[in-house]
Amino acid sequence: MDQSPLPPYGERVSSDTAIAHRPAGLPPIKLSAPAHNGFWEIPVVYEDAHLLAIDKPAGLLTSPDRYDPDRPNLMKLLHGGIETGRPWAVARGLTYLSNAHRLDFETSGVLLLAKDRTALVGLADQFGSEKPAKVYVALSKGTPAEKEFEVDLKLKADDRQPGRMRWSKDGKKSLTRFRVLETFGGVSLIECHPLTGRTHQIRVHLLSAGLPILGDPVYGDGQRLYLSQLKTNYRPKGDEPERPLTPRMALHAWKLRVKHPVTGAHIDIEAPWPRDLEVALKYLRKYQ
């Protein structure tokens, strides 16, 4: 396992890295979803002849739920768009899309897809050997004692609670490094570098460090952040219930660095921080 220290914030690892691009002129990806105001619009953060990287929205499964296969999921919606000849699929000449990894239901951010089988095999080899460099950001409850720390706990599925992971000496190797970017009176903005790719790894490791992610209903108390908790003279607007600054689990897949499965070039892909996270940080910085 690589034990090198975390790179300085924002540093590019090598000179052969290409910053991801988005070709101009292609229509946006819109997926029919009656339960979500008619459709999901999926931002594209990188695209070429072999790869498509999107900014997955929170509140959408990556792939079918083994316990409830009828729940809407991204891959089923994408495949449906290809099969029915939606404009975004026709313009790209898409006949194939497959995800190289997954993001949790409430996690937003970079999700990398392959446009052909060759690219998928190349990506699967990388993700299987834990080569891609992944960076997440999270808002967590609590204040770490150190600016940089790591959690090395083996994880396995919790047989007593389906869909949940737990740490166990019989589990799989799991290592995450963390860097504290900012702290605000009991809330911390944390940069997360998972060196392995276990299910729910960041969430479990932050919980084990006493830093559950805000809004996490499985590995925390699900508590949201409200402006009334930050602003001493807060006044509600009429009879409307207060809306949370963090309406979902505050975890975002920010950056992904992979070796292109066809060209061999290293690619840095980023998904902008979502509006809910930016708004929460705005008020945390102002009132804490």
Would you mind describing this structure in some detail?
This protein has 288 residues and is an alpha+beta fold. It has a single domain (18-287), classed as Pseudouridine synthase (2-Layer Sandwich). Helix content is 17%, strand content 29%. The protein has helices spanning 74-83, 87-92, 117-128, 201-208, 275-287, and strands at residues 17-19, 29-33, 38-42, 44-47, 51-56, 98-99, 108-114, 133-141, 148-152, 155-157, 165-167, 175-184, 187-194, 251-259, 266-270. Strands 1, 4, 5, 6, 7, 8, 9, 12, 13, 14 and 15 form an 11-stranded mixed beta sheet that branches. The protein has a two-stranded antiparallel sheet with strand order 2-3. Strand 10 (155-157) and strand 11 (165-167) form a beta hairpin. Residues 1-17 have low confidence and may be disordered.
